[in-house]
Amino acid sequence: MMRAYKFLLRPTVRQAQALREMLADHCSMYNGALQERRDAYRHVSKTGIRYGDQSAQLKEIRAFDPERQGRWSFSSQQATLRRLDKAFQAFFRRVKAGQTPGYPRFKGVGYFDTVIFPKDGDGCRWDSTPHDSRTRVRLQGVGHVRVHQHRPVRGRVKTIAVKREGNRWYIVLSCDDVPAEPLAPTGAVVGIDMGTVHFLTTSDGEHVVNPRFLDAAAEELAEAQRHLATFPMRTRRRTKAHRAAARKAARLHAKIRRQRLDFHHKTARELVRDHDVITHERLNTAGMTKAPAPRPDPAKPGGFLPNGAAAKAGLNRSILDAGWGVFLAILANKAESAGRTVIAVDPRNTSRTCPECGHVAKENRVTQAKFQCTACQFAANADHVGATNVLHRAGLVLCGVA
User: Fold this and answer.
1) SS3 15
2) Residue 262: which domain range?
3) Which pTM value belongs to this model?
4) Within 194-239, where are the H helices?
């Protein structure tokens, strides 16, 4: 199996400055390579410049600018150029597919937050000693940086990434050949229904409360963002006060993200520990959180009819705050490591199908919380009904019926 391990770095003041310089120089290389591609496409050749052409120029660039580009790892600079190449490949793929292309854009220093080292030992060496709070990682141009290793690393380290999140620095290790750690079988099978009122409901009738971390911090976050918006555009990123306001808003968002991830990990761990098979709906969160299309008013050229955008925005915010997609990915990873099985089923009509008689109707869902079959009058909690139907469909999948 492949797994990623994320650890907090504890650099000294001088090392933190070197890390910021490393990000800034890689960002400069990324933007310079992007500008070269744009110029080549416009003035030289419609085929443009590829990754191989730009990678071949690295040796000359490092020799020309040894203070900025020559001090960093050659392979990490290649990874930055490869990152740009992937952005262009995705751009051309979307063009061919008829989607919104999204041409690669220049990145500001504050938005370029990751440097990748493609191979352990090439510009970045991980100390592979057993679990030890004194673990260090060696970064070319930075030195030996302390790592808060809160759990052991298993498998073979393939790639290493240094990432900045606000004022914190992290190291992300991508490992393969990670051994599984199967849990003892329990014989239990469960279906789960994701929601916004309840984070999830199991087919056993258990409700997991939705913590709503974004709503809990909404007032403080709104105040920080209002203060940030008071700075005129011409002074933004130029004054100490503006930078402090931006850091405060970023800290609040980072705290919400950490709280959400912690909740996801703990909830997934309980499900994996107590069940052999876990089933859930195959959710398309990107489609579910899409803004409604505008409705032109035929009676008023240039005008629009109400389309429920305000109400949909509130629902979208609740879905994104719950983080269903991230949770289901964490659940799948933990289940694979523990030797459990996760099954995703078709979500259509799971909350409109009667588990007693199989009758499907929109009218069966009386309210958000109440289900009552119009055929057999069976009544139950709507989320519990959805979880039960998810479990039933997973049984059909296992039997090869669907």
Assistant:
1) helix
2) 189-399
3) 0.86
4) 213-216, 218-229
